[in-house]
Design a protein that fits this description.
Structural class: mainly alpha
Helix content: 40-55%
CATH class of one domain: Mainly Alpha
Strand content: under 5%
Order of helices and strands: HHHHHHHHHHHH
Largest sheet: none
CATH topology of one domain: Serine Threonine Protein Phosphatase 5, Tetratricopeptide repeat
Radius of gyration: 19 Å
CATH superfamily of one domain: Ankyrin repeat-containing domain
Number of strands: 0
């Protein structure tokens, strides 16, 4: 393996671990902040996946591109929202030019990722920063669909209050209420019906 690849691989590992000192040292040795591994992941994606805010800022200062995508079309923002306390990472990435409504190869957005995890504060942050609550994935799923399928009551309520289309129908004609009924989640069903959901 070439020396450059060894340094870049080490930089990726340091980013994943959140080791600021190692990142700085490897950058001085020529480490590439935009290096991609075998699945297209970058050091910025790796550090966001682990919730390392300071390392994310450090890598961006070293030239890491915030909108780079991996082989699945996921960007750093999509990884940042999978952290329970990802609000500061979300803020940083979008402030540095991250696209809040970016889609991966399945047409999924960061808001959909956050909704499926049930991380309410991340959902609120994305909405405040301009996330479109009614974007639809390749499989005709909305963020509300993801919240319901994963039984995320609080997240679903936030999305409904933010204007989610409560009667959206997917290709099979399923609405959010039908999904909630399929999950047999009585609390979700009642919440949707109170807000005007129809079968």
């Amino acid at each position: 393996m070439r020396t450059e690849n060894l340094i870049d691989s080490a930089l990726m590992a340091a980013a994943y671990k959140g080791d600021k000192s190692a990142i700085a040292l490897l950058a001085k040795k020529g480490g590439n902040a935009n290096y991609k591994d075998s699945v297209g992941s970058t050091p910025l994606m790796a550090t966001c996946q682990r919730g390392h805010l300071e390392c994310a800022s450090q890598l961006i200062d070293l030239g890491a591109k915030v909108n780079t995508i991996d082989h699945e079309g996921n960007c750093a923002l999509m990884y940042s929202v999978e952290q329970r306390k990802g609000q500061e990472l979300i803020q940083l990435l979008i402030a540095k030019g991250g696209r809040v409504n970016a889609r991966n190869k399945q047409g999924q957005t960061a808001l959909m990722f956050a909704a499926s995890k049930g991380y309410a504060n991340n959902v609120r942050k994305l909405l405040r920063l301009g996330a479109d609550v009614n974007l639809v994935s390749e499989n005709q799923e909305t963020a509300l669909t993801f919240a319901i399928v994963w039984n995320r009551l609080v997240t679903a309520r936030i999305l409904v209050n933010a204007g989610a289309d409560i009667n959206w129908q997917d290709q099979g004609g399923w609405t959010p209420l039908v999904y909630a009924q399929q999950e047999k989640n009585k609390t979700l069903i009642k919440m949707l019906e109170r807000n005007g959901a129809i079968t």
